[in-house]
Amino acid sequence: MGDSVSQVEKLRAERDRIKAQLEEIESLIQAYEELKTKMQRVLSGEAQHVGRLSGRPRASSDAEHRPVDMPSNRTRSDDVAKFEAFVRNILMTADRPMNRNDILTLAEINDIPVGGQVPANTISARMARMGDVTAKRGVGYWLKSRERELFGESGAPDTQQGSETIPIPPGFG
Q1: Hey, how many other C-beta atoms are within 10 angstroms of the C-beta on 122?
Q2: How far apart are CA 149 and CA 168, in angstroms?
Q3: Structure confidence by residue, pLDDT tens digits, 82-105
């Protein structure tokens, strides 16, 4: 009888552990859905400026070139790690390559610190250091692991500097 009681206790403990995991998964799904909605707004052109979605006032052109203060309770490496995780999540869920301005807008909407005197340039520099991310001028950034998924067997479209037309990958036009 003692064995069956301990088995029941083990099963209850396992059930509680699984319930906790399910709650965590539900929380992640909700966060993903919120990010997906924000991305769709940005990509659909609804967000002419971050301020319209976030409730922040419109930034002047001088503000884009002003250094960004970093909160003292975070280290630079924490901010970089947070940014890289955020970008990987965006690129994993995006249905097309993302340009740096889209990434900057989404980072600002989600309060992801970018830093730098010119945040768009900081994004370019950080993205260039991410080994699992690739880019092509005029196309955008994407995860190397998704290249075939995004572009098919032919790979990323060929772009030539100065060319006005860039082949649009299937499903993007």
Answers
A1: 19
A2: 14
A3: 899 999 999 998 889 999 999 999
Sign of CA dihedral 55, 117, 161, 87: negative
Q: How far apart are CA 35 and CA 39, in angstroms?
A: 6
Provide the terminal-to-terminal Cα distance of the chain, rounded to the nearest Å.
Answer: 68
For tokens 């067997």, the residue is 153
Axis crossing angle, helix 119-129 with helix 76-93, rounded to the nearest 10:
80
**Three-class secondary structure of residue 140 per DSSP:** strand
Contacts of 13 (CB under 8 A, 6+ apart): none
| Cα–Cα separations (whole angstroms), residue 140 to 16, 17, 94, 166, 169 | 44, 42, 12, 12, 12
* pLDDT tens by residue, 18-33: 988 888 888 888 888 8
**What ranges in the chain are assigned the alpha helix state H?**
2-43, 50-54, 76-93, 100-109, 119-129, 147-151
